[in-house]
Amino acid sequence: MPQSSRYSDERVEQLLSKLIKVLEEHRTPTDLSLMLLGNMVTNLINTSVAPAQRKTLARSFAEALQASIREDEDKTH
């Protein structure tokens, strides 16, 4: 069951589009894009989350990421 967000779909899509545009403008390969995004997540957790909550948040994030991965054939490749 999807979780509701306090952020509008429009805002999420707008920011996601800008992030994707930057990566595309620099012709960033997938592995480097994933490394950069992972570093960004790590930085956000380390600088914005209380130390006692970091491991729990990282675990929840990893679980949400795994749950969102499509296992069916993706037509975008």
UniProtKB/TrEMBL annotation:
Pfam families according to UniProt: DUF1414 (PF07208)
Gene3D superfamilies per UniProt: YejL-like
InterPro entries, per the entry: UPF0352, YejL_sf
Highest rank taxon of the organism: Bacteria
Membrane-crossing segments per the record: none
Entry similarity comment: Belongs to the UPF0352 family.
NCBIfam families: PRK13689.1
Protein name per its UniProtKB record: UPF0352 protein SSYM_2269
Lineage of the species this protein comes from: Bacteria, Pseudomonadati, Pseudomonadota, Gammaproteobacteria, Enterobacterales
